[in-house]
Amino acid sequence: MKPNLYPLQFEPILKDRIWGGEKLKTILNKPIVSKITGESWELSTVEGDVSVVANGVLKGKSLMDLIDEKPNEILGTAVYKRFGKQFPLLFKYLDAREDLSIQVHPNDKLAKERHNSFGKTEMWYVTQADTDARIIVGFKENSSKEEYLKHLNDKTLVSILDTVKAKAGDVFFLETGTVHAIGAGLVVAEIQQTSDITYRLYDFDRKDAQGNTRELHVDLALDAINYNKVDTQKKYDTKVNTSNTVVDCPYFTTNFIPLENKLEVSKTGESFTVYMCIEGSFEIEYDGFKQTYIKGDTILIPAEINAFILNGKASILEIYIS
Questions:
Q1: Quick one: pLDDT at residue 3?
Q2: Separation CA 178–CA 190 (nearest Å)
Q3: pLDDT digits (tens, 9 = 90+) for 174-187
Q4: What is the pLDDT of residues 107-152, one digit of tens each?
Q5: Which of 181, 206, 234 is the last residue of a domain?
Q6: Is 180 annotated as a binding residue?
Q7: Helix, strand or coil, per DSSP, at residue 113
Q8: Residue 105, marked binder
Q9: Residue 215 labeled ligand binder
Q10: Most CB atoms within 10 A, among 6, 12, 31, 146?
Q11: What is the domain range of residue 131?
Q12: How many domains does the chain divide into?
């Protein structure tokens, strides 16, 4: 007899990056051991980086195996119908001790043609921000391929890009084609399509420990970039014990829940739900199951679990596909 499903946590997949630091440990309780950990992949089915269950009787089982065995029950009826046995989202935390490279992601059409992959629409929720931390999002004014290439070659690309000061609680929604970079001093929660396709445009001419520069993808990026000015920052309500909509796009819906005490949740079974604990702590209660989660935890609620209770004092991101 196969065990029943329950709220699932997964082992974090930790990634050292040239721009990474130690905040994933000090702020989000991740078990990092290096001083340049840039990313914690919380929930992933990217090839070579598939999440493994960390809690309960299914501990040690991969997310791919679970989906293969119980696609409707894990993914949800509507998600399974749309995506088959693919888990369509990737969840991460990032710690930018230094500026990330300036980059862009292709849309579904380009990514399918070139890489047999999804595109990479994504959003950032700023979990922590140092004073004067900034991000780059799009162009200051409508630009062109010619203007972009001139500034790229002159090493003045930053001068035509829009730089925005960021603080904790800010949300930025980046459609494919948006040139962007997370700036130094930021920790962000990132929700995106399942894709690891990134075109790096400029890396500030920095070198790794071996004296090597990182590969750029200038030619691939030319047809992927949206050269028009874009509005990326999202405003949202913070009504207590309510799923306040932050981003609602074809790829995912993200809500912000300021939890105070108890919230009863009902779901339809059409999609899985993911909770990311941004601040505080809370419990999930479900059919005899009860577990406490703290800041930095990410929890997958299988789609077949359609009624449960959140209880505690926390700031939570709620993500599903609608």
A1: 64
A2: 15
A3: 999 999 999 999 99
A4: 989 999 998 888 899 999 999 999 999 999 999 999 999 999 999 9
A5: 234
A6: yes
A7: helix
A8: yes
A9: no
A10: 12
A11: 13-234
A12: 2
Is residue 197 included in any domain, yes or no?
A: yes
200 is a catalytic site residue = yes
Which residue in 28, 24, 207 sits closest to 101, CA to CA? 207
At residue 53, the pLDDT reads 98
What is the sign, positive or negative, of the torsion defined by CA atoms of 1, 79, 49, 289?
Answer: negative
DSSP H or E segment with residue 265: strand 253-266
> Which residues, including other chains, have CB under 8 Å from residue 295's CB and lie 6 or more apart?
27, 28, 29, 277, 278, 279, 280, 281, 314
136 residue type, one letter: I
Query: Residue 199 and residue 259: Cα distance in Å, rounded?
Result: 38
What is the DSSP pairing of strand 161-165 with strand 134-139?
A: antiparallel
pLDDT for residue 87: 97
Residue of 17, 114, 134, 200 with catalytic role? 200
Q: 132: exposed, middle or buried (C-beta count within 10 Å: 0-12, 13-18, 19+)?
A: exposed
Note whether residue 239 is domain-resident: no
41 and 177 together in one domain: yes
Q: What is the pTM of this model?
A: 0.95
